[in-house]
Amino acid sequence: MTKLKLGPIEDDKPVKITLELPAALHRNLVAYAEILGSGAGQAPTDPVRLVVPMLERFIATDRGFAKVRRAAL
């Protein structure tokens, strides 16, 4: 199984936002969703559901952001 940074997507009530993505990024999200689903033995996840966990993961692992947040508290 391929090791991805993103784990299973939790089923949570979504909040609707409108966002325009470059076509290449959308294709990559679709491919990621397919790989994530196949690795878990499930149908592909809707690529839109990947955006929040990816952003959360990015923010959680951004050391510069964490440093500034700690200094601000």
Structure explained in plain terms:
With 73 residues, the chain is mainly α. It has a domain at 23-72. It has three helices and no strands. The chain starts with 22 loop residues before the first helix and ends with a helix. The relative contact order is 0.16. The mean pLDDT is 85.
Give descriptors for this structure.
73 residues, mainly alpha, 55% helix
Average pLDDT figure: 85
Shape: globular
User: Biggest sheet: strands, sense, closure?
Assistant: none
Percent strand? under 5%
Task: Give the SSE order as H and E letters.
Answer: HHH
Count every beta strand, where a strand is a DSSP E run of 2 or more residues.
Answer: 0
Oligomer: single chain
Low-confidence stretches: none
Offer a quick outline of the entry.
The chain has 73 residues and is mostly helical. The protein has helices at residues 23-39, 48-60, 63-72.
